[in-house]
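Retry 2 of 3 after timeout on previous attempt. Resubmitting structure tokens to design endpoint.
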């Protein structure tokens, strides 16, 4: 019995001893585990590196150059539905019609044409009663017993241009012999004008057809517009115009970009021989900006006489107000001749092809003028 108690006491002592030995080892293992866990939480690669601060006097990196003629931001999309109204007195109004459709009466019935589908429309003679009456009277006067009246009427009818041909064809077999002959003569002259390239540079003209002409994206309608007045929402506010005051209406090309081009004008592109066509077509109301540089030898005044684009007034004047040797310009073959010089900015008074030339009088046309001017041209479309 005594031996059993002694054995139990020894076993209890052994367990207590093992406990004292194991506890420090377990504590050490837990400490290692905690340290490893902390190390994982603060691992250096988990923290993004901080960017070094720039010194106050540090220079910024240069930005990439952008050419002047390229937009740095996307162009704003133009507002659709803008129309250009050409009035009888020469006024041009740009804006949007407040109405959504155009009512038209045709021989096949009444139509309602959506404004958004119309590319252009032109009121005819029936919508311009005064002009209609004038033309009717002039045609009748072609058979007048007085030669002076006949001649005057013929000259006035020619001024209406090729658009008058359909109306004249109605009188091609007129019973009055004198009227018939004169109508044929006028038509022959107008056909010649119609094939002249210059006639394409005059811009919209009044329609001399009897009926109103409405051109859509798919077809053309001939009829009578059943609306007497139009309200236009323009940048100046709402404007009202009568149908009879309208010459023509066309859809404005709001996507039309600026034109930038460089043209070389040599000393042999003399104005007295004919201007150099730049190939740039401008519309009435467009702003034209030109800068030029270069040198041309003024041979008649000696090899040491050199002119720039502003010309030399001491050598005389071309057309009364343009110094000899200057860079000159005009729009179309019969346009007003202008001094361009080294710098010019003006608004086109008519539509046509821009032409440039070396200002020189006819009596010096047989001389050689070595050199050239380089003209940088910018055309800003009218609003």
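Retry 2 succeeded. Sequence:
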């Amino acid at each position: 019995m005594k031996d059993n108690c002694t054995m139990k006491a020894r076993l209890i002592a052994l367990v207590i001893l093992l406990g004292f030995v194991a506890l420090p080892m377990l504590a050490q293992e837990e400490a290692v585990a905690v340290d490893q866990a902390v190390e994982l939480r603060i691992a250096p690669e988990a923290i993004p590196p901080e960017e070094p601060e720039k010194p106050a006097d540090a220079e910024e990196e240069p930005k990439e150059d952008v050419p002047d003629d390229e937009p740095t931001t996307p162009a704003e999309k133009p507002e659709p539905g803008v129309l250009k109204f050409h009035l009888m007195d020469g006024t041009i109004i740009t804006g949007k019609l407040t109405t959504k459709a155009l009512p038209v009466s045709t021989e096949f019935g009444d139509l309602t044409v959506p404004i958004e589908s119309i590319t252009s429309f032109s009121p005819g003679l029936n919508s311009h009663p005064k002009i209609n009456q004038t033309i009717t009277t002039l045609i009748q006067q072609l058979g007048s017993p007085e030669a002076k009246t006949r001649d005057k009427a013929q000259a006035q009818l020619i001024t209406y241009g090729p658009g008058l041909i359909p109306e004249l064809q109605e009188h091609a077999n007129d019973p009055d012999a004198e009227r018939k002959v004169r109508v044929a003569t006028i038509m022959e002259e107008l056909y010649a004008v119609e094939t002249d390239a210059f006639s394409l540079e005059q811009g919209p003209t009044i329609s001399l057809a009897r009926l109103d002409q409405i051109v859509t994206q798919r077809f053309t309608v001939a009829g009578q517009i059943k609306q007497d007045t139009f309200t236009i929402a323009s940048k100046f506010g709402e404007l009202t115009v009568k149908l009879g005051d309208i010459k023509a209406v066309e859809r404005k090309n709001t996507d039309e970009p600026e034109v930038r081009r460089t043209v070389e004008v040599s000393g042999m592109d003399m104005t007295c021989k004919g201007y150099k066509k730049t190939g740039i077509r401008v519309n009435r109301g467009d702003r034209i900006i030109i800068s030029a540089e270069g040198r041309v030898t003024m041979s008649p005044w000696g090899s040491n006489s050199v002119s720039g684009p502003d010309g030399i007034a001491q050598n005389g004047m071309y057309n009364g107000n343009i110094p000899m040797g200057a860079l000159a310009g005009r729009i179309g073959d019969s346009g007003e001749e202008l001094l361009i010089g080294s710098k010019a900015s003006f608004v086109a008074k008519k539509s046509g092809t821009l032409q440039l030339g070396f200002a020189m009088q006819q009596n010096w046309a047989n001389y050689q003028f070595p050199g050239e001017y380089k003209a940088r041209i910018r055309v800003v479309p009218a609003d």
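Attempt log closed. The radius of gyration is 43 Å.
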